[in-house]
Amino acid sequence: MHENFFHKLKVYYEDTDSGGVVYYANYLKFLERARTEALYSIGYSNKKVKDDFDALIIVKACNIEYKKSAHLEDELNIRSFVKSITKTSFFMNQIITRDNDTIVEAQVHLVFINKDGKPVKIPDEIYSKFKPYFCDSIKT
Prior knowledge:
This protein is of the alpha+beta class. It has one domain (5-138): Hotdog Thioesterase (Thiol Ester Dehydrase, Chain A, Roll), CATH 3.10.129. It is built from 3 helices and 6 strands. It has helices at residues 26-41, 46-53, 124-130; strands spanning 5-10, 56-66, 75-85, 89-98, 101-113, 134-138. Strands 1, 2, 3, 4, 5 and 6 form a 6-stranded mixed beta sheet that branches. A hairpin with a 2-residue loop joins strand 4 (89-98) and strand 5 (101-113). The radius of gyration is 16 Å and the shape is elongated. The protein starts with a strand and ends with a strand. The model is unreliable at 136-140 (pLDDT under 50).
């Protein structure tokens, strides 16, 4: 059984269009915030990864499916978990919900890179802290 990261957020006026519906691109920002908080919850930040390991975590690809709309002042929950991992990257599944309604489902491919943009091995310290959040499929 894998663990999940959870992040809550409220939809603000700036997140919506004139009709009070969340603008589609803003869901990517919500997902990014949840991933940043997930990283923070295991004792790291993007700045710390850069400073301590001379690496960055970048989004290589994102597959997102919009199921329903979120609206002004909705309270959303984002559940994130690591679906699979390789030596240099991992896939994180993220699901945005409002109460029992699924709003968005996304699979994000994240890669550790060096300052030259080349993939690098995920640092052992980070790998071991993420391990409880892995789903059953770990690839080499």
